[in-house]
Amino acid sequence: MNTSWRAADVAAAAGGRVVGGDAAAPGPSAITIDSCTAQPGTLFLGLPGSQADGGAFAGAALAAGAWGVVISEEHAAGLEDPTDDQIVIAVAEPLRALADLAQSWRRQLGCAVIAVTGSTGKTSTKDIIAGMLAPSRRVVATHENFNTEIGLPLTILGAPAGTEVLVLEMAMRGEGQIAELTRIAEPDVGVVVNVGPVHLELLGTVETVARAKAELIAGLGPDAVAVLPAGDRLLEPHVRSEIRTVRFGPGGELEQLPATIELPFASAHMRSNALAALAAVRALGVEPNGLIEVELSKLRGQRLLLEDNVVVINDCYNANPMSMRAALDDLADSASGRSVAVLGDMRELGPDQRRFHAELGAHVRDVGVEVLVTVGEMARDAGPPFGGENLYSLEDAAQAAQQIASIIKPGDTVLIKGSRGVGLEVVAEALCEQLPPAAGGGA
Fold it and tell me: What is the domain count for the chain?
């Protein structure tokens, strides 16, 4: 945001009204939903939450010098003693106000928007897209997990004037959520990386997952481009004949990366993500070449070289059957010494969760991973299909962190992956304490 808007413009964009301060005052330079970060120039938006109602902290935000606040009518009526130069905007629904503010700012920016969703790999694909665009465009991309009905609008509102491309990751846990994010973002390019068995506890079937992801396709405008995996039968019923669709992967319009592009990784799943990214940036008229500098988001496949030539692949932000298989394939292909998989529970898989974990153990065995460490009750089901003496079944992340150093040998490559709730990052941290990063740090 910037001060080209007036207070009245902010109120109109949020679907509210100015009830305190000067409606003609220059607008804010930034937005926050945390009253602790409010400061001069900042607009505080008080969102209702499960633990507390942010509107109750509007007074604290104003006391900290905030430019103004957007809060519910109820909180605005009870607000005490704002100064004459502080703006109070009352709205019916603060969350909707956040969404509408973001949509208005997206239109004000007038930039291109690439939206990315998928069951696995969407964050890496978003990171690769940003890397491909960075040499020639001013890019703002989703930071960490700002991919929800709160995070995505904040990403848009945090984009400065002059932004040329927004790269927005879209997450969902139920139907209708991608549709709302698409409404806010109004993408020029919509990328669905893949569809697989995730959130089955809530959605029931993989077909329902596909329908939820395909809300991105349904919400694209008539001049937009859809980028989809070739041969994905789950998405085919949702393809729109009236918009341009580019398919990537074997059998698609974009089957392989050109020799002019150099990537900082070699794994099959990351190269597939790069194909999706290339299709997306080409839709905007960008042709990347040379080495693509990619800054992967935290806890999503970063490789760290430790002492004793131990390599840690820290991929413990999330996990599902698709992403687990891809990560294990990469581990088996890339390990120069022993391959070690530290695998936590895969959550939200519904009534078939035991089968999914047993199939995971069989895949660990079949690709030739030599050591399996399961962490958690559900992950334990991967043990019997793996078999062998190099199997360790641990109760939780804390126990794994205590024991991991005694399992690892010099030259090992260690994949650490599980659902976010398992908290496996402490295992990576423990290894780094026992074996500090080697000179250079990368792998």
Answer: 3
Of the CA atoms within 13 Å of residue 352, those in its CB half-sphere come to: 15
Dist. CA 27–CA 94, nearest whole Å: 18
**Do the beta carbons of residue 10 and residue 39 sit within 8 Å?**
no
* CA atoms 320, 326, 329, 335: torsion sign: negative
Boundary of a domain, candidates 262, 291, 320:
291
In a domain, 332, yes or no: yes
pLDDT digits (tens, 9 = 90+) for 123-172: 889 999 999 999 999 999 998 789 999 999 999 999 999 999 999 999 98
Strand partners, 248: 229, 254
Neighbour tally for 255: CB within 10 Å: 12
pLDDT, average across residues 215-229: 98
Judgement on whether residues 406 and 436 belong to the same structural domain of the protein: yes
Largest CA distance in the chain: 73
3-state secondary structure of 429: helix
Structural domain boundaries, residue 85 = 7-97
Mean pLDDT of all residues in the chain? 92
Q: Are 390 and 314 in contact (CB under 8 A)?
A: no
Q: How far apart are the first and last CA of the chain?
A: 39
For residue 239, is it left (φ>0), alpha (ψ between -120 and 50) or beta? Answer: beta
**What are the strands of the beta sheet with 225-229, ordered from one edge?**
139-141, 165-169, 112-117, 189-192, 225-229, 244-248
Residue whose structure tokens are 């992403």? 323
Alpha helices in 55-150 (DSSP H): 58-63, 73-77, 94-109, 122-133
Q: Which residues pair with 245 in a beta bridge?
A: 226
HEC string of 4-27 equals CCEHHHHHHHCCCEEEECCCCCEC
| H helix runs in 299-341, sequence order | 321-334
Confidence bin at 439 (pLDDT 50/70/90):
low
Residue 104 within any structural domain of the chain:
no
Q: Is 423 among the domain residues?
A: yes
396/393 Cα distance (integer angstroms): 9
Same domain, 201 and 339: no
Q: Which of 69, 97, 125 is the last residue of a domain?
A: 97
* Residues 320 and 429 reside in one and the same domain: yes
On whether both 241 and 336 belong to a single domain, the answer is no
